[in-house]
Amino acid sequence: MNTQTAPILEIKDLKISLPKGADRPFALQGLNLTVRPGEIVCMVGESGSGKSLSAGAIMRLLPEPHVSVADGSITFEGEDILSKTENEMRALRGNRISMIFQEPMTALNPQKTVGWQMDEVLKLHLNASRKERYERAIEMLGQVHIPDPESAYNAYPHQISGGQRQRVMIAMALSLSPKLVIADEPTTALDVTTQLQILKLIRELQQKDGAGVLFITHDFGVVAEIADHVIVLRKGEVVEQGSADQVLNTPNHPYTQALIASVPDLQPPAPKPLTSLPVVLKGTGLKKTFTARGGLLSGKRKAVAAVKDLSFQLHQGETLGVVGESGSGKTTVSRLVTRLLDADSGAVEVDDTDLLACTPPELRAMRKHIQMVFQDPMASLNPRKRVVDIIAQGPIVHGEDPEKARARARDLLELVELSPAAANRFPHEFSGGQRQRIGIARALAMEPKVIVADEPVSALDVSVQAQVLKLLADLRDRMNLSLLFVTHDLRVAAQLCDRIIVMQRGEIVESGFTADVFAAPQHPYTKNLLSSIPGRSWTPPVRKIDAA
Amino acid sequence: MTVLDTDLRPAEPPRYVMFWRRYRRNRAALLGLILFTLVILMAAIAGIVDSGDPLRRAGPPLTAPFIDASIPLGTDQLGRNILSQLFYGARISLLVGVVATLISILIGIVIGAISGYFGGWVDDLLMRITEAFQTIPNFVLLLTLVAILGSKIEWITFAIGIVSWTAPARMVRAEFMSLRNREFVDAARNLGVSNSALIFKEILPNALPPIIVYASVIMAMAILLESALAFLGLGDPNYASWGNMIGQGRAVLRTAWYCSAIPGIAIVLTVLSFSLLGEGLNDAMNPRQKQ
Hints:
The structure holds 2 protein chains of 2 kinds. In chain A, 36% of the residues lie in helices and 24% in strands. Chain A is of the alpha/beta class. By secondary structure, chain B is an all-alpha fold. Chain B has a domain at 93-291: Orthogonal Bundle (MetI-like fold). In chain B, 70% of the residues lie in helices and 0% in strands. Chain B has helices spanning 15-24, 27-49, 82-118, 120-135, 138-149, 153-163, 166-179, 183-190, 195-231, 242-249, 258-285. The two termini of chain B are 37 Å apart. Classes of the chains: A alpha/beta, B mainly alpha. The interface between A and B is large, with 52 and 27 residues.
């Protein structure tokens, strides 16, 4: 890139201090960073690495006085940001530096129309008539490729889709042609296909305006897609920086190597011969429609079909992936199969017993055959119970002697590679990955025939994700488990699943061996999904075995 | 290099230690705790301070405080010892406060839990009943109940419990509605746990902290309600209660103000101690709410 031009943003030896009692004294230590015009600098790191705080420091939006800049300098277009008054900063924010947030739903005010919110930004910083401002807003909405900008202008945030909301955020951020755009995980909450479009959009608009972009992400696929320059952070320290090509393909620091090695590659496992294996879980003709309950006097609202006529078979020892974007009904499938939700019609057979036809007591007895690992490691463990009781609960409910069940719970902790000391602690004392391990141990405690895993790794950092996936794969092979694995992440699906089902709007559009589907997708939706995987053209360098 | 995730963080100190640490951060809450302890002490040592009947004649009527050492806070118009009435009154106030609160919280938890957990028509029905109770002003309902049941202290306590369960019921319902969809509840259901165990063993412990905090408010309110009843002359005349004292002292308010002022101060401090206590409990039990 044009390294000669004057940098837009220059950070030197930035140090951000944390309040007493935090896990480390400084959130960020000795950050050096330069963003030049027309350059996209990616800041990569796992949660807690201090990447979002550095964005806060540039915007001067740190939660002071608890967290404050202790040392170093931030220079924006030759001006020292740290010595500016609050009023000077206000003139800068939104105008010459703007920010795109992670969660477009919460970053937009739900009570105001999109147009009102765009107009507010323009009104604050631009001395223009109402008509000019309106035209500018419409022009920006057009630039971010929102179909029918006029109607979007008058819409409320909940009336447009998540991807469109993020486009609105980008339009707002770029409407004053800022010199620096800070994007804090702008695509993390979006589906892959939307993500790719948004990434392309940021690239396109930034090239047109020549702005510098500081892009914060945890996803190496996204980095591969968009970055010119990469900075890898770990616990507040820069472990490596360099050009995208250099960091991605020849990482020097062991941490970067480990991180990159944790990115699941797109090599599906070889197909297993299935004809000889017995079917352990069979779904036939499953249907579920959600009807919103109206009030006492108001009529029924429109029903939404979440799953339309779904049938599948899961063989012993096999992993079946259910893949789809948000709204495809894949989570509903996981709830129907475990009968946490009642299906409208259809059958779920575990060992030739139809789960959906069971009476409540029969169902309670059947539940031990089909267990579940949940998505949110924070929410899926009862915060008021000790780990040992959480794991032993199932067997105790099904009549096992409490002492024996607890002893076995301790063994299971070992099986999921946690120290036995964990047994007497409460869930909040664990990290996300550890909690997910506890969740797996809870499912295993019942010695189920089938485990349904609903996005079990989507809330975890990549390196942790890789470890949990590896554990799942290990356990599956060792204990001959059958897994129904629901995920939105095709990379994860490629790692673990023997066969996959691709769902769109409640229907199966394609199914088959993972390897076959990945190599030659038939349905246009599958093709689109596969081509939207961020960084699909980048193959991580030779992985080191010791990474996990 | 490995980035292994299985190493545990250092163990936390036991729960009660953490609780006390957070509680004592709030100075006002400490004051509340001290006041509360004082009231309990008063109730406990009432028998030592005066081993006789507190309603017997102890000296000449309307003796002002600090005149006679044997009756340090003076006497009322019937010559009864104000100090010993005050100590025995603490018993009544605490008894009414604690028992009425237990009754109201218990009803509130059962109705709120069932309503919030099952939803649908069960919720509709129970909430309409709750609303029916809420539309009648507390005190009017209390007067009616006491008029029907009679003004024995047991009935008064019961009636206070009956008029104050609606707020905790709505609170428990709201907690249950947000908790019942959490994944840990689904997880337990998926283990085959029955509905009643889900309600009382899984969800209730998580719903309790705000209820316990609110209990302190109900306790304060119960004491005030009892005093108000007694002030109107509807209290149980067989017991020395602060409300009775104020109610009777009202007649001589201009000449002997201390007859009503002293129990009045006791009520103010007791109610204050409960609300400070409640605030401290809130800080200690919902640490994330306020930072």
